[in-house]
């Protein structure tokens, strides 16, 4: 089912029930950013605005170097934007840390911590780690096929298994909004496809608000409610599409004419953008 742009709930407060609107999980408004290095300025993001509604899965696709990871750093409060603001659940959080759970581009498991302790890291940092959190971690470790590896260290796991552990760490962190930065880019095609199906099922069972960066158009179409297409650097939003497939989704949708049509459209936009970036500037 596609998400409404706003979710309306009824409150019990007051004499007459008042319908009011739940603010989006994330609102990025008119963000711009340049970096200067040895007196040369690189414009990385230009006037980027996007929204992730509550429990919505939103993807960003765009050429490499167009500022996608930088945008995540800005949302996470690690980098200050030059212009623009970030709101989460209706509150301004520009420059604040600790509001999101983040899975960086490289699976950054701590080598000296066991898988279980890596998965529990988010709640530990937030001070919400307790027996219940540990039990939840064990439950999910089993569920994602890492049962028996609770006490193992990251180097004992394959790349795909490490990704799953890193993903679980983001999933079980207490923050509502998850930012996933190309989580499957280091995996071979088969493992990647398995991980996509796994993430799809997991997300449909345990809905979180997700902002997902990927290069892979099929992956974006399979998983997302909506997709933003970024231009080359400085990254700005060229297009936004709503993905119409009902949920729960299965991989079979990838063979449907509508899926292929959307895939063609998105690939066309991406090719145009890449061609523009190859054209020498005069
Ligand atoms: N801290 C930084 N200082 C200077 N330049 C940076 C910094 N972080 C990113 N950049 C530059 O910003 C551009 C966009 O990088 P990035 O956000 O990683 O792109 P993407 O994730 O879309 O591939 C690159 O040219 C990169 O070199
Ligand atoms: Mg990146």
UniProtKB/TrEMBL annotation:
The annotated region (Disordered) lies at 1-23
The record's section on InterPro entries has: AAA+_ATPase, ABC_transporter-like_ATP-bd, ABC_transporter-like_CS, ABC_transporter_ATP-bind, P-loop_NTPase
Name a Pfam family for this protein. Answer: ABC_tran
Q: Which GO terms describe its molecular function?
A: ATP binding; ATP hydrolysis activity
Q: What residues does the ABC transporter domain cover?
A: 26-257
Keywords, sorted A to Z: ATP-binding, Nucleotide-binding, Transport
Q: Which PANTHER family match?
A: ABC TRANSPORTER ATP-BINDING PROTEIN (PTHR42788:SF2), TAURINE IMPORT ATP-BINDING PROTEIN-RELATED (PTHR42788)
Record-given protein name: ABC transporter ATP-binding protein
Organism name: Paenibacillus anaericanus
The major lineage groups are: Bacteria, Bacillati, Bacillota, Bacilli, Bacillales
């Amino acid at each position: 089912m596609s998400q409404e742009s706003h979710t309306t709930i009824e409150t019990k407060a007051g004499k007459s029930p008042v319908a009011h609107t739940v603010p989006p999980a994330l609102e990025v408004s008119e963000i711009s950013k340049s970096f200067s290095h040895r007196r040369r300025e690189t414009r990385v993001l230009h006037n980027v605005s996007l929204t992730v509604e509550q429990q919505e899965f939103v993807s960003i696709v765009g050429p490499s170097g167009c500022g996608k990871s930088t945008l995540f750093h800005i949302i996470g409060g690690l980098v200050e934007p030059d212009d623009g603001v970030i709101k989460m659940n209706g509150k301004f959080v520009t420059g604040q840390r600790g509001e999101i759970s983040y899975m960086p581009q490289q699976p950054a498991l701590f080598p000296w911590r066991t898988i279980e302790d890596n998965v529990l890291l988010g709640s530990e940092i937030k001070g919400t780690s307790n027996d219940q959190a540990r039990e939840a971690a064990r439950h999910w470790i089993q569920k994602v096929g890492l049962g028996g590896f609770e006490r193992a260290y990251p180097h004992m796991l394959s790349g795909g298994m490490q990704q799953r552990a890193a993903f679980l760490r983001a999933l079980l962190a207490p923050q509502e909004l998850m930012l996933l930065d190309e989580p499957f880019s280091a995996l071979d095609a088969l493992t990647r496809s398995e991980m996509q199906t796994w993430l799809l099922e997991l997300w449909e069972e345990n809905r979180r608000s997700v902002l997902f960066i990927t290069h892979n158009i099929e992956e974006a179409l399979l998983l997302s409610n909506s997709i933003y297409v970024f231009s080359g650097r400085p990254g700005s939003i060229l297009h936004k599409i709503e993905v119409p497939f009902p949920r729960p989704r299965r991989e079979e949708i990838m063979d449907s004419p509508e899926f292929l049509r959307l895939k063609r459209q998105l690939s066309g936009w991406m090719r145009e953008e890449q061609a523009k970036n190859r054209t020498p500037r005069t």
